[in-house]
Amino acid sequence: MTARALLGERLVIASHNPGKVREIEALLTPFGIEVVSAGTLELPEPEETGHTFAENAALKAETAAESSGLAALADDSGLVVPALDGAPGIYSARWAGPDKDFSHAMERVNRELGESRDRHAYFVCALALARPGEEIRIFEGRVDGVLLWPPRGERGFGYDPMFLPDGRSESFGEMDPAEKHAISHRARAFRDLDSWLRKTE
Ligand SMILES: O=c1nc[nH]c2c1ncn2[C@H]1C[C@H](O)[C@@H](COP(=O)(O)OP(=O)(O)OP(=O)(O)O)O1
Ligand SMILES: [Mg+2]
């Protein structure tokens, strides 16, 4: 797949999470690509049966590309806590249950950590880019930090209020979105995508 082909087309953002779609739209702005979300096109939400972030991202991008006939970009991401053997990891969304209750998911993370002295965690983002009938591409990013309790801030989404990125004094829930976009796992995956686009131009 070439950058030229991609840049001349409409791109589906293959995500049903409004917090993510908002961030992806902001991160895509400099690329000047016309985007449409999976929700707007009423695309189905596929079951995430993969065992890795990359597999689930690929599955979501391929499903969206096939059902829309357009190029599609999917994001599979999550919070990895080494002291919890990597949980919630690819199950990060599922820990919030059908009501997407992240206060409950954050409480579970904190409860399972208990008195553990190791509160290190990182977010991972795998982006998958698919065009109908073409080989899929994966881009990845990660950001390290520590888990706070109680959670802080109302901005962002998901586990943001309990995540303090290394070297910062504000949680992702407190930060201005532009600051999160400068350092987040998602921003780093976009940098990876950007350097690939430049190479293939
Ligand atoms: O920057 C982030 N800040 C806070 N929490 C985050 C972030 N990035 C991922 N997360 C957590 C919450 C999210 O729900 C889950 C991803 O799960 P994941 O399956 O990739 O997304 P999702 O089900 O919410 O939407 P969709 O699959 O339609 O793209 O990890
Ligand atoms: Mg999902």
From TrEMBL:
Q: Which Pfam families does the entry link to?
A: Ham1p_like
Molecular-function GO terms, alphabetical: ITP diphosphatase activity
Q: Which domain of life is it from?
A: Bacteria
Top EC class for this record: hydrolase
Function as written in the Swiss-Prot or TrEMBL entry: Pyrophosphatase that catalyzes the hydrolysis of nucleoside triphosphates to their monophosphate derivatives, with a high preference for the non-canonical purine nucleotides XTP (xanthosine triphosphate), dITP (deoxyinosine triphosphate) and ITP. Seems to function as a house-cleaning enzyme that removes non-canonical purine nucleotides from the nucleotide pool, thus preventing their incorporation into DNA/RNA and avoiding chromosomal lesions.
Can you tell me which residues bind substrate? 15-20, 77, 157-160, 180, 185-186
- Lineage, opening ranks: Bacteria, Pseudomonadati, Pseudomonadota, Alphaproteobacteria, Rhodospirillales
Q: Does the keyword Metal-binding apply?
A: yes
Q: Give binding positions for Mg(2+).
A: 47, 76
Q: Which family does it belong to?
A: Belongs to the HAM1 NTPase family.
Entry keyword GTP-binding:
no
Q: What is this protein called?
A: dITP/XTP pyrophosphatase
Name what cofactor the protein needs.
Mg(2+)
- Cofactor binding, note field: Binds 1 Mg(2+) ion per subunit.
Task: Report quaternary structure and partners.
Answer: Homodimer.
The EC number(s) given in the record are 3.6.1.66
Mind telling me which SUPFAM superfamilies this protein's record contains? ITPase-like
Q: Which organism is it from?
A: Fodinicurvata halophila
Which reaction is the catalytic activity of this chain?
A: ITP + H2O = IMP + diphosphate + H(+); XTP + H2O = XMP + diphosphate + H(+); dITP + H2O = dIMP + diphosphate + H(+)
Per the Swiss-Prot or TrEMBL record, the active site comprises 76 (proton acceptor)
NCBIfam families (UniProt xref): RdgB/HAM1 family non-canonical purine NTP pyrophosphatase
| HAMAP family registered for this protein in UniProt | Non_canon_purine_NTPase
